[in-house]
């Protein structure tokens, strides 16, 4: 059990709640240009460049995706076409939740105020949130914060908007690199790692590991 009553439960969205399909989209668009091993390499480079693109000054998420595809194409010798890269960005609003999410969120929403802090653009995120099956108290984006996670500025924006402190929230994510390491550094004591199998558990950061959102609800007595 989690022996804590948060003022807010704050969530990462893409990957944690929404089924993140950036790699799959890349495979669909570039799979006919590379053999399977090279395609796996392409997806990994694309993942790394997306992280690299968000660590500086804020830029629109469209540019993050397109720049990451361009750099990946240059790295792997695949011809770059901006219109093809944009198809990956344009697919984002159609992504739906992981199968466990609507049930778990509806249980949590019966008692707690739910908040999203997402590396998203304002013109896309609400389509994804609308598919999650539960009401959210607030939805904050990198565009609003003018900073992407893992930068602390993104979390600071959320705390300022909510008028609360790090110790008031339970932060939930499937990513240590984007969320949970920064949450630890900021003094967020209560954290949950949703193990979606795209990052390994790292116990050093003091998280409650759960397999899905229903298990999180159970740990909170719901």
From TrEMBL:
GO terms for molecular function: hydrolase activity, acting on acid halide bonds, in C-halide compounds. It comes from the Bacteria. Keywords: Hydrolase. Gene3D superfamilies: 1.10.150.750, HAD superfamily/HAD-like. The keyword Hydrolase applies. NCBIfam families: HAD-SF-IA-v2, HAD_type_II. This is HAD-superfamily hydrolase, subfamily IA, variant2. The lineage of its organism: Bacteria, Pseudomonadati, Pseudomonadota, Betaproteobacteria, Burkholderiales.
């Amino acid at each position: 059990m989690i022996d804590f009553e948060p003022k807010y439960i704050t969530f990462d969205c893409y990957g944690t709640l929404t089924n993140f399909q950036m790699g799959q989209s890349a495979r669909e668009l570039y799979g006919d240009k590379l053999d399977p091993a090279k395609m796996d390499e392409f997806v990994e480079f694309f993942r790394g460049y997306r992280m690299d693109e968000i660590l500086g000054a804020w830029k629109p998420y469209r540019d993050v995706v397109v720049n990451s595809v361009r750099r990946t194409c240059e790295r792997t010798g695949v011809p770059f076409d901006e219109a093809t890269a944009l198809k990956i960005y344009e697919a984002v609003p159609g992504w739906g939740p992981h199968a466990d999410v609507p049930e778990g969120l509806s249980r949590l929403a019966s008692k707690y105020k739910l908040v999203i802090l997402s590396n998203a653009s304002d013109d896309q995120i609400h389509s994804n949130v609308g598919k999650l099956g539960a009401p959210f108290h607030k939805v904050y984006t990198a565009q609003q914060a003018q900073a992407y996670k893992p930068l602390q500025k993104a979390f600071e924006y959320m705390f300022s908007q909510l008028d609360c402190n790090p110790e008031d929230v339970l932060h939930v994510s499937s990513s240590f690199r984007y969320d949970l390491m920064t949450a630890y550094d900021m003094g967020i004591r209560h954290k949950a790692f949703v193990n979606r199998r795209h990052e390994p558990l790292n116990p050093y950061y003091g998280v409650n590991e759960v397999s899905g959102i229903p298990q999180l609800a159970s740990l909170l007595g719901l």
